C-alpha cells in the first residue's frame, strides 16, 4: 500500500514526492509514461557528448529565495543570465526591447528619459487592455508591435495577438534602460550538472519508488494507494468529457556543429522570417567546454506533446468545468501546468507544489489503526 501515487515525474510531481517522502515519511510511488524522470526539463548528453535539453531550453530564474534554496538542496548552481537577440530588419537587436534596441534599430542616440518620451509618442491609447495586441500597442505602438511581436506570436500560437489573452505578451516587458538580460529575477542560475542530475537526487529517498514507461491508467486498479497527486492533462484524467483543452506543441530539431560557437548569444528569435521561432545554443546555458556545439530549432505546431495551454476565454471556460470535477474529488490533488491549465514557469511550479505539500500536511492527522500509524486527510 502506497500512501501517495503521483502521476508525472516533472517538477510538480518530483517536488511533492520528495517532500512527502522525506518530511512526512510517506511511501510514494511516482510514475511517468516517458522513459525518464524530469519532465520537460530532462537533459542528457547527446552522442557527441554535449549536454542538451530534450524538450527545448529550460532557463531557471526566480525571485523566490524559498524556491531557490529548496532546489539548492539537490544541486549546486552555475550563475547564468540569459540574453536574447531578435532578428529584425536585417539586424540582431536585444529583446526585451530596451534603450540599446531602439538606438541600434533606428540609428539613434536616445537617453533613458528620451526613450520614455519616444515610447509615449508611439503608444496608442487603449481604454481596456484585453488582448496581447493591446498590451504591446498601448506601450510601444504598432510599428514595434509588427516588428517584434505579431509574427512571432502568430508562429508560436497560430493565432493573431488580437485573439490571445493579454498575459502572453505581458510576459515580455519593455525597458527604458540598457538592461539586456532576458530576465531580471533576483536568482538566475542553472543546475551545475544539469536538471536530470538534480531530479535524481530529489527522488533518491528510500520511501520513493519510480515506474517509467507506464500509463497510470494501466496500474491504477492494480497497485493499492491511499491518495493521488495528478500532474498530467486534466482533460485526459476526466476522459475528455467536456472536450479537449487545446495546447500548442513544438517540434525540436537538433543540430551539432563542428565549431566551438554557432551564434553570438544563447537564443536568437526570428519574429518575421523562417518557420522556426528561435535557435538556442546549449553551451551558453550549461557552460560546458567542448570543441563542438549543439543548437535546437523550434517549430511550433498543433499536434504533439502538450507544452503550452492556449490562453483564450473559451478555453478557460472549458477548464473551469474540469476544475469543478477536480474540486469534488476526495484524496486526489491536481497540480502543475497541465493539471491546472496554466502557463507556469519552472519556479512557479515548484512554489505551487511546495504550497500544496503544506496544505496536505496541514490536513493530515495521525491515528492508530491496529497499532499502526496511517496517513489520513480530512475531506
Written overview of the protein:
With 379 residues, the protein is α/β, with parallel strands linked by helices. The protein has three domains: 2-37 and 203-245 and 310-377, NAD(P)-binding Rossmann-like Domain (Rossmann fold, 3-Layer(aba) Sandwich); 42-83 and 181-192 and 247-309, no CATH class; 95-170, no CATH class. The chain has 14 helices and 19 strands. The protein has helices spanning 11-22, 65-72, 99-106, 112-122, 132-140, 142-157, 167-170, 195-202, 216-219, 234-237, 282-286, 313-327, 337-340, 346-362; strands spanning 2-7, 28-31, 43-45, 51-53, 61-62, 77-79, 84-88, 91-95, 187-191, 208-211, 225-230, 247-257, 267-269, 278-281, 293-301, 308-309, 332-334, 364-369, 372-377. The protein has a seven-stranded mixed sheet with strand order 8-7-13-14-15-12-16. A hairpin with an 8-residue loop joins strand 13 and strand 14 (278-281). The relative contact order is 0.20. The model is unreliable at 366-371 (pLDDT under 50).
